[in-house]
Amino acid sequence: MKVAAFAILLAAVPFAAAAKTEKKHSPRPATGEIVLPFQLNKEGFPLIKGAVDGKPGVFLLDTGTYDRFLLNRHYVPLDQGVHVGGDESIVLRRHAGAHKADLAGVLKVPASSGNGKNPDAALSIDARQQQQDIDPRFLGWLGWGFFKKYVTTIDYRRQVVRLMPLAKAPPTPRPPESITLSFLPSSPVRPFVASIGGHSTPTVVRTTGWDSLALQPANWKRIAPSKVVKPRPGKGCIAVTPATFGGKRVDLVDLERSERQDERLTLGIGFLPRFTSVWDPRVGKVILTPNGTKPPQRRSCA
Q1: pTM, full prediction
Q2: Pairwise CA distance, residues 216 & 275, whole Å
Q3: Which of 28, 103, 161, 265 has its CA 20 to 30 A from that of 76?
Q4: Residue 202: burial class (beta carbons within 10 Å; 0-12, 13-18, 19+)
Q5: Which fold has domain 34-165?
Q6: What does residue 128 show for φ and ψ, rounded to 5 degrees?
Q7: Class at the top of the CATH hierarchy for domain 179-290
């Protein structure tokens, strides 16, 4: 189901169980660093335990949501609020009052949106359908509006998020094997460019994105002679071997294939677990360092 730009893209296609993550002892946090553990649900969505006004549940870590928090009013007790946007399927409401969020018992912050004319107010949608797909205790989205105050490291091997306040964060290292991508958060997220068979393709990286490639019909035909796009027999998926971005050649597997005018390569829940990613808003970059983890295998893209 597609929802507005402030929410996530959900699909009915199931993934196999998320790849097992090698558990290691996490290094000691640096001075001033905040460490939040997370877990992956069966689709591969990263979930952080927490609470809103004492109501326990999980937040979805979504680098594609521009708000600090977007709450699920179907699960979180909130007042009626004021209608401030959305469409027939998604109604966005603003709620006054001091709502509090607890993140993993480590950090307590206002559960506000951080955007719009009332940045201290909470925003919500009725996310009962997403709640069925994500978790029965789905509190809502934890978005870029929160993470932009930190240099954020997402470590999929140890399943922790490390937050270092911008004023205290040292320069982000860029190992030779890392991939550096442009990341300029907006609503919607601004794409960077990948090359697929010589074709420049708008690309986004997002912690909740379903890995997919959408091209115009003519451009599917144009890249066919390069033979970089290969079918995945029995799955209805494709592999791209390779795509080029950030100056590196990268093999992509188990992508959905579609034809549409608005072209887009989305790198998300199958791609990101292969890397430790550092999201640095000071320079507008995300640095991806391979972690040796194999991507989760998708059952079907049909």
Answers
A1: 0.88
A2: 30
A3: 161
A4: middle
A5: Cathepsin D, subunit A; domain 1 (2.40.70)
A6: -65, -35
A7: mainly beta
